[in-house]
Amino acid sequence: MNQSRRSFLNKTMKTALGLPVIYYTNLPKGLYPIIWDEDPIQGKSSELVILNSRPVNAETPAHLLNDALTPNDLFFIRNNGLPPSEINVADWTLTVEGESAKTSKSFTLQDLKDEFKNVTLNLTLECGGNGRSEFNPPAKGNQWTTGAVGCASWTGIRLKDLLAEIGVKDDAVYVAYEGRDLHLSGDPQKLPISRGVPVSKAMEDESLIAWSMNGEDLPLMNGYPLRLVFGGVPASCSGKWLSKILIRDRVHDGAKMEGQSYRIPCDPVAPGTKVADEDMCIIESMPVKSLITSPKTGAMVKPDQKFKIEGKAWTSAESIDKVELSYDFGVSWMTTRVKKAGNRYAWQQFEAELTLPKVGYYEIWARATDSEGARQPIILPGWNPKGYLNNACHRIAVKVVS
Amino acid sequence: MKGLLTMVTISFLLACSSEEPNGTAEFNKVEDGIHLRTGLHDDPNLQLVIGACTPCHSADLITQNRATREGWEGMIRWMQETQGLGDLGQGEPVILDYLAQYYSPEETGRRKNLVIAEEDWYQLED
């Protein structure tokens, strides 16, 4: 949203709110002012780029992802519905049940903190549709550029410890969630989103139920007071405002599991192909990817000026093997120094020094290769109807000016 | 047109809350062909589009997307099948014409050029 529209909205909507808003009967009281407040998104930086104000979807410009861990106010937001309007943490419960659960039980937040081992891990979350804006023919949905990604330090408990306490039957297939966000229609019977992961993913050491992000409570927009955090899968698996875990004896069939949501063609298709629902398969891992986080695109340097390139790389594989840079449109590639991560699914920092050969326009491209040998493509990878999994190399523009 | 707008709006109230225009000129201000409150292209049928499309989600979901008339129709069907959107009746072709006219796909190739506005270039210090 541009600044003149934003200031117009702030001014005009306040006037509008002074008048009777007669059609808001379906919405819980106190919900709409969040959208039209001076600070349009509670707890978030005004530097986030808002793609959609209802439901809130906002991304982080690449140069604001330069911190080792993404600060809470800069972490992207992908809401499918409206966050709960009244949250009483003392009364918040998480219920675990389902066809393949040996028992069912409810826990308060305090129970979770007291009864299970607390762990802290750095985990990257990336929306499955990050990079959708590059699809041609275009794909419907929020037109994310590069900023639906962030890496934070999450504190909580291991999902597998909770599942062990409940008991998982042998026929379990999927572990799914429900949250307390509200459907856009205001219909309390409808869930905006209810997704999940295969049992094997739920049982990984890095799969968490978290109440803290970078040492603080989760921001409201990132799921306060409780959420799932899975690395290496679309972030939509990491349910926010978490109230229920379902141990399913089948592939979960909740909202945005079926149809074309978070699915790609089972077999690759030519751009623009219509694909029937039954030929679409669930995305179960995110591809290797990287971003140049410094300098910001549009940098001008002097001839012979040595400057530093910094960035982040991540993968659903074990780790990042290398990150290379090119300033000559892929003719030649130079290596960078890549830092090791403390745990799987944490993004890894890379850096290199660079001097450009002569005056002119350059693009710096970055491509990462992971421990399985998978490397980022230079052009848009496999077109798919919903615009998922674009991991094409990131590019920034730099000029040498005398 | 007013009757049509009312009918379409009413069909939405079944599914969603709606927004009540407050009738001031400022509320529907248009600048450079853009309706400032929503960011939508101005058009004689704009109020019909606002009434039909923005009770559940913001107009940003329209303005950031590009699709053919058929593509937009597919999105309406999806909202009707899964999200509680009602029948748009006679409003539907009018809305589809509007969407296809202002929000149709552009040929962009496999990757776009990087475009940096003149004022966004900056000097990188040592």
What does this structure look like?
The complex is a heterodimer of chains A (402) and B (126). Chain A has 402 residues and is mainly beta. Chain A has five helices and 24 strands. Chain A has three domains: 3-78, no CATH class; 89-282, Oxidoreductase, molybdopterin-binding domain (Sulfite Oxidase, Chain A, domain 2), CATH 3.90.420.10; 289-400, Immunoglobulin-like. In chain A, the strands form six sheets. A five-stranded mixed β-sheet of chain A has the order 5-4-13-8-9. In chain A, strands 6, 7, 10, 11 and 12 form a five-stranded antiparallel β-sheet that branches. The longest helix of chain A is centred in the N-terminal third of the chain and has 15 residues, at 3-17. Chain B is mostly helical. Chain B has one domain (2-105). Chain B is built from five helices and four strands, in the order αβββααααβ. Chain B has helices spanning 2-13, 46-53, 60-63, 69-82, 91-102; strands at 30-31, 34-35, 40-41, 122-123. In chain B, α4 crosses α5 (91-102). The radius of gyration of chain B is 18 Å and the shape is extended. The model of chain B is unreliable at 5-14 (pLDDT under 50). The chains are: A mainly beta (402), B mainly alpha (126). At the A-B interface, α1, β1, β17 and β24 of A face α4 and β4 of B.
How would you sum up this structure in a few lines?
The complex is a heterodimer of chains A (402) and B (126). Chain A is mainly β and 402 residues long. Chain A contains five helices and 24 strands.
Q: How many strands, which pairing sense, and closed or not: the largest β-sheet of chain A?
A: 5 strands, mixed
Helical stretch tally of chain B: 5
Sheet with the most strands, sense and barrel status of chain B: 3 strands, antiparallel
Question: Roughly how much helix do the residues of chain B carry, as a percent range?
Answer: 25-40%
CATH architecture classification name of the largest domain in chain A: Alpha-Beta Complex
Helix content of chain A: under 10%
Structural class of chain B: mainly alpha
Task: Calculate the terminal CA-CA distance of chain A, rounded to whole Å.
Answer: 35 Å
